[in-house]
Amino acid sequence: MLDSMLRVDHAGEYGANRIYAGQMAVLGRSPTGPLIQQMWDQEKKHLQKFNEILADNRVRPTLLLPIWNAAGFLLGASTALLGKEGAMACTVAVEESISEHYNSQIRALMEKDPDRYIELLQIIKEFRDDEMEHHDTGLEHDAESVPGYWLLKNAIQLGCKAAIYVSERV
């Protein structure tokens, strides 16, 4: 259980970093650039921590990192091409999916052995709170005003669920 959990969390933080990189490639010099950079900087810390956790636990990353590299960047850049609102809609969709996923992991670890996983639980809770902050930031910055918001959000979340499912296993 722990190996797949750590693997998918690492993959998710890796993907989030690539999404923000794609958004910055398009909007980095716009007035929205500093906001995206601030969220990306937090994601970089998350990824670094999961790099350490994988090494400490001798867990290999998902074999799909090359795919998440390209897919994440493409998702970030393509939604940013819709403007600030598109980038924020992507942020809302992804961060909501990640937060829900972290919540399910918190429940699983609490049911299994909360004393054994106290440090990991603390990390996941902290990162989940950061993701929810990004989600709320996206909403505060007009995510819902992008044309086709509901469709875009649901399509992105479907992709997130598929990525989670596959990354846990491969």
Task: Give your account of this protein's structure.
The chain is mostly helical. The chain is built from six helices and no strands. It has helices spanning 2-27, 33-57, 65-80, 84-112, 118-140, 149-169. The protein is globular, with a radius of gyration of 15 Å.
Show the helix and strand layout.
Blueprint: H1 2-27, H2 33-57, H3 65-80, H4 84-112, H5 118-140, H6 149-169
Helix pairs in contact: 1-2, 1-3, 1-4, 1-6, 3-4, 4-5, 4-6
List keywords for this structure.
170 residues; globular; 82% helix
Give the SSE string.
HHHHHH
- What's the story with the biggest beta sheet? none
Instruction: Tell me the radius of gyration.
Output: 15 Å
Helix/strand/pairing category:
mainly alpha
Please report the number of helical segments.
6
- As a percent range, the share of helical residues equals over 70%
* Beta strand count: 0
Low-confidence stretches: none
Q: What's the end-to-end separation, in Å? A: 13 Å
Task: Summarize it.
The protein is mostly helical. It has helices at 2-27, 33-57, 65-80, 84-112, 118-140, 149-169.
